[in-house]
Amino acid sequence: MSSSPDKAENAIVCTICNRTEPNANKVLECMQCHQCHHFSCKKIVGNAVRKWKEKEYFCSATCKEIQVGRTHPDSPSVMSEVRKVLDAVHNMQEENAKTRNYLEKAINELEKSQEYLCSKFDKMNGDISKLSSNQRVLKKDVDYVHEENVSLKVAVEDLEIEVDRLKRSTIANNAIILGIPALQNEQLGDILNQICCALDHNLPGGAVLELSRLRDPKKEQKYPPIRVVFADVKYKEQLFEKKKSLGTLLTAKLGQSFHGVNTKVIIRDEMTSHGLALDGVVLTRKCQGAKIQKVRKRSDIRNLTQGKSTQLSSFDDTPPRPREKRPLSTSSPNASSIVEPTPKKVM
After folding, report:
1. pLDDT one-digit tens code per residue, 72-106
2. Using CA atoms, how far apart are residues 323 and 305, in angstroms rounded to an integer?
3. Cα–Cα distance between 42 and 52 in angstroms, integer?
4. What CA–CA distance (Å, rounded) separates 196 from 64?
5. CA of 110: how far to CAs of 107, 113, 121, in Å?
6. Strand 27-29 relative to strand 282-284: parallel, antiparallel, unpaired?
7. N or C: which terminus of the chain carries fewer CB neighbours within 10 A?
């Protein structure tokens, strides 16, 4: 059984037709790769068979070159191939040298760029540190200026309140009558007497020092306010009491001159510009049961809108300020269009 593999290995097989040939004289064997070819497959017949048997046979040019290189290393073909290999190696060495030089230059440029960027980053880091330091100093200065500004605003508002208090004291005897239309050739004294008659009130002689209309020079007014300057504050208070007792007073009740005019007659204190902007004291609290706060001036309003209720005047801690102006339970339909100038701008 072991003879079968040996026979298969020693069998002559033509690599062209793939047939086994028992007679070795009918085939050519390659000196290099030992492949076998039939003479007939190579189309070698007759006398040519003898000549092919007398010389070395190579199945391909590659096998011939390999065999020649082994047996004749100094042959021209081998030297030619060696020169080709050497030239290729030399060219590769030159390319590698060029590539190495290029890479060295690129690396040097990258190192220079990295050093430049590092220096710039160091400078930027120093500038940022300096800027941060300056910012902290500036913030301290701004905080100081802000505190000074807040203190100055508080001082100015306190001065405004004091000036307003002085102005109120100068006009404490004055009253303003609203809701009476202006008539041609009107006599303000007669109008005041008609109001007193409607209120069932008698003013003594000399109780009124001055009567005038407060007109706005910038626009025409149908109901310019009437200013009444009393000789004493008691006369004003008596008139207010009568008006309060009567309630609503219509202009039509003042006589035929005002027939068909149904506006309400309003009598109130003369107020300063500050008093018109913020009159009296406003009480406020955030929710039911919370601590009551007082709004007395503009800064309290700003603090209230900003949610700084702790800065508002405490209802329990702040002593009550005397109220110099009285609130009115009624309002005139034309009161929003009336612009009342300060006492110094009376026309």
Report:
1. 655 666 677 778 888 899 899 999 999 999 999 99
2. 24
3. 11
4. 147
5. 5, 5, 16
6. unpaired
7. N
